[in-house]
């Protein structure tokens, strides 16, 4: 991957947070009666989702096999989490928010095969989501679409695209929006530069960006995954914020994979495969929908159709050719994001 060495140096700080997260996760889970413990290394806005999925899976697996499992979690910025696994964190499975983080494990560590996408349905992505806006009650800055994020006087809270898939999706969504409205690549770069000039804090992950917006009170708009916006809008912050759907956004299909070298070393392949297969079960798809993520199961999606507002989306492949091309052009050292960020003030 072009520029990976420099990028690795940039996100090593995030690895410490990932290690801390897994230390806390291990400390908070009792496995005294467990025959096998799996470790799921995931991105930072899926804590609540996998807490519920794990409980459901453990019960279903016990009923089916008679075996007792435990599932431990590690959460952090997606790219930093991938680097933690590359550097030795013993993940049985990874559940990341964009394919490049799993490709890293295949290309640099040979921890998963290059064809990992083909091993599970739907390109190994059990649900989809997209990037939307969260604004303060009443939408005082009248933010409606991506153009508004580039206006002077707007503070947009966006996670750092160097360390966060959340930030990467946002960057690419804004770039694609400008291109879809007749812009050249140069105009798209100027447009995204104007948006990031309005970003007061570059948090390393999506949950950090949420904290900056909701708890620290910084910013006029948070750009993040639809499920994170829905969680805030219907949770403890209900009534203080409003969700805004832009006219078009980027489709996110967060992928999952078994980490072959780890499961073969630990002897946990059967359990890890069962865990990932379970994500496509009706029970897990229902949990996915309840956590405001768009399920792949058509029946479950139809049941929750009223919650998921229609939105026009495009994919990374549609706009940029592939994730690898997008990574090389925009996020490798010296890429367009580096050019944008160096003089954003």
From TrEMBL:
The lineage of its organism: Bacteria, Pseudomonadati, Pseudomonadota, Betaproteobacteria, Burkholderiales. This is Sulfate ABC transporter substrate-binding protein. GO terms for biological process: sulfate transmembrane transport. Belongs to the prokaryotic sulfate-binding protein family. CDD domains: PBP2_CysP. Transmembrane segments: none annotated. Pfam families: SBP_bac_11 (PF13531). Keywords: Periplasm, Signal, Transport. It is found in: Periplasm. One of its GO terms (cellular component) is periplasmic space. Residues 1-34 form the signal peptide. It comes from the Bacteria. It comes from Paraburkholderia antibiotica. One of its GO terms (molecular function) is molecular carrier activity.
């Amino acid at each position: 991957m072009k520029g990976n060495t420099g990028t690795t140096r940039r996100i090593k700080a995030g690895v410490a947070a990932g290690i801390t997260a897994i230390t806390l996760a291990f400390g908070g889970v009792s496995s005294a009666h467990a025959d096998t413990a799996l470790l799921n290394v995931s991105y930072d806005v899926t804590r609540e989702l996998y807490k519920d999925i794990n409980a459901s899976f453990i019960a279903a697996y016990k009923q089916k096999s008679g075996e007792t499992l435990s599932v431990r979690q590690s959460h952090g910025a997606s790219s930093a989490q991938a680097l933690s696994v590359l550097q030795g964190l013993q993940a049985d499975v990874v559940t990341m928010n964009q394919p490049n983080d799993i490709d890293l494990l295949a290309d640099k560590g040979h921890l998963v095969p290059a064809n990992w996408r083909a091993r599970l349905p739907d390109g190994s992505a059990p649900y989809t989501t997209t990037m939307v806006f969260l604004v303060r009650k009443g939408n005082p800055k009248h933010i409606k679409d991506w153009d508004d994020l580039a206006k002077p006087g707007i503070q947009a809270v966006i996670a750092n695209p160097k360390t966060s898939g959340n930030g990467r999706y946002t960057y690419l969504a804004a770039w694609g929006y400008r291109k879809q409205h007749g812009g050249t690549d140069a105009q798209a770069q100027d447009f995204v530069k104007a948006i990031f000039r309005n970003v007061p804090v570059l948090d390393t992950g999506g949950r950090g960006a949420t904290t900056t917006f909701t708890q620290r009170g910084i910013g006029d708009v948070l750009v993040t995954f639809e499920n994170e916006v829905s969680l805030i809008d219907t949770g403890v912050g209900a009534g203080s914020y409003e969700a805004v759907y832009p006219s078009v956004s980027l489709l996110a299909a967060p992928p999952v994979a078994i980490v072959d070298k780890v499961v073969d070393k630990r002897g946990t392949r059967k359990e890890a495969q069962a865990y990932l297969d379970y994500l496509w079960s009706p029970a897990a798809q229902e949990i996915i929908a309840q956590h405001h993520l768009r399920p792949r199961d058509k029946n479950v999606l139809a049941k929750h159709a009223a919650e998921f507002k229609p939105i026009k989306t495009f994919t990374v492949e549609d706009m940029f050719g592939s994730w690898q091309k997008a990574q090389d052009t925009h996020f490798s050292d010296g890429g367009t994001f580096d050019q944008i960020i160096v003089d954003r003030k």
